[in-house]
User: Fold this.
Amino acid sequence: MVAVIVFFACALLAVTGAILLILSREPIHSALSLILVMVSLAILYLLLGAEFISAIQIIVYAGAVMVLFVFVIMLLNAGVEERTDFSKFAKFVGLPLGFFLLFEVARWLYTSRAGSVITHGAGTVTQGFSTRTLSAELFQQYLFNFEATSILILIAILGALVLARKNP
Amino acid sequence: MTAVTISLPEQIANLRRIAPEIVLCIFGMIVMIVDPFVKPASRRALGWLAFAGTLVALASVHVAAAEMGFAYSRLISTDNFSIFVHVIVIVAAGLAILGSIDYLDREGIQRGEYYALVLFATAGMGILAGANELITAFIGLEMSSISSYILCGFRRKAKESNEAAMKYFLLGSFATAFFLYGIAMIYGSTGTTFIDAAKAELERQLAANGHFPALAILGLGLIFVGLGFKVVAAPFQVYAPDVYEGAPSPVTALLASAPKAATFALMIRIFYVSFHSAGDIWFWVIWISAVLTMFIGNLGALVQTNVKRMLAYSSIAHAGYILVAFAASTELGIAAVLFYLAAYVLMKVGAFLVVTHVGQEGEKRLNLQDYAGLGMKQPALAACFSLFLLALLGLPATGGFLGKFFAFQGALDSARAHGGWVVALVIIAAVNSVIGAYYYVRVIVAMYFWPQSSDYTPTRVAPALVVALFIAAIGTLYLGIVPGRVHSLAESAAHSLPLQSAGSNGPSNAIVIAPPQNAR
Assistant:
């Protein structure tokens, strides 16, 4: 019962955040609403028993990516958005496609009863998955990829250094 | 999943199997660490350090070759095939580094990062050559690509260099996304990202359902888009002339050669091993792409007056010839692709290194007119360039001729399986070789018979460049005159791939295949 209440509270927050994100005219307000969406999604993941994904969601999206967004907004000194009418493309292709997507998702949820996950509570979706299995995969099976990625990141840092240096 | 402990001997064997990559990465890091302690005037020493790195890596290929097998829970496969491609890639990188040392001094951009990036890129290509798993391959591909994007823009003050880097980066990232999506689809339909396990699973599904899973074919298509971009196969070749022309010449030498070899190696693993049983389907994709690539490359090169751009188009055309051998889908075809790559890398790097020298400060002397009379001014340089051009054209006694010969032979050999279409493909390739003769010979005619150009005043060819050109020229002649050893190595490399399906002897419904390794 508690899970259901938490679910609906977070779902409501997520949807509200998403709507605010689109509607607010100040870019910084949009960014802050996005944080709301991210955090409530993280709580939803937690409800499903995916602690790791939930933590990643907070650290990577709500943490790193959002800081990046906010920095870009501040650096560009972005002002208030201008309101425009829908372009023709958005009006005649975008809107119908959007509604079609909404309809399809709703229909699928209704017929497959995927919604019952909420009432069944935690751990239904991610059965057999845990941070332990993930780390075993990452540090044993895919150890080489993990290590090779470090070189890849080194290359990226080197690239930033080369391209951003003042006096070549 | 239970914890798996790996014994010490197994650990050491794993390390030995990836010895070339380890050496390249360590040397890359040493170059980076030493860089701040070296005076700007003597930074060229870093170039020699990096070159030493490629030499040690070449030697360490022997270490890997002595320890064949799968490394790191089957992510890396160290077999003859991987070893062969490693040698090609490392040689190309070594030659490009030799050509860079004096070029960077000339352009005033002598920096340690350049060499570190070349070494890291080479390590990435090494991973590509040996990858037995698609995510591993993806990381290798990114290591080589991201380094290349940066290297393209290394002449930061030159507009065309910036343009090249930007174009290559944007389109390249897009192509990578296609590749990644393809991996996701193959994983979706087979439940594995391992190249050999996917083969078994696809064959099982084929035997069970009588047809190939559509999702896997779609995935293969997307992978062809991603990798076709990297090997400049049409219709994904649009970026190549601009990028190759704008990038610093030694970088172009590297770009046009080594990544192509490594990416073709990965394509062979995915198409020939995983999708061996879908050969009839992808044959047509390769066929169409090969024809388009050859015509676009050769016809595009015809109208160029800029030699660097002409060579860029020529490298598109050569990707087409390699695809002809690729279409064979037999072991002979793989051997032909590998031999072609070995010959192609030497002559292409050689040709671009000549362009590096003749280009002079700021790469201003790239036009055909600047080559007029080069045969009188610098006979040795002109002779080298002529050799590379004739090899690219496919003249007998050069590696280029035998590369084409084996490619066409490999394709014709598969005529029984693919019928007349493959014969038509070889005829189209032969016609294209003849078209190619025009623009290659035109440069040679300019060098020897046109009145001397007054713009280009000869400068001394730097010793490092002399060494690089010498190695490339000797290699091109060696492959053309005594190809036996390299070709038999290519054949054994092709033989080391697990092409045959597990139950090819019995009736198709009797195939018994172990479940994929990481099935849950």
In short: Residues 503-520 of chain B have pLDDT under 50 and may be disordered. DSSP finds 21 helices and two strands in chain B. The longest helix of chain B spans residues 159-190. Chain B touches chain A at residues 1, 3-4, 18, 25, 29, 32, 71-73, 75-76, 109, 111, 113-114, 116-117, 120-121, 123-124, 127, 133, 135-136, 139-140, 142-143, 146-147, 149-150, 153-154, 156-157, 518, 520 (CB under 8 Å).
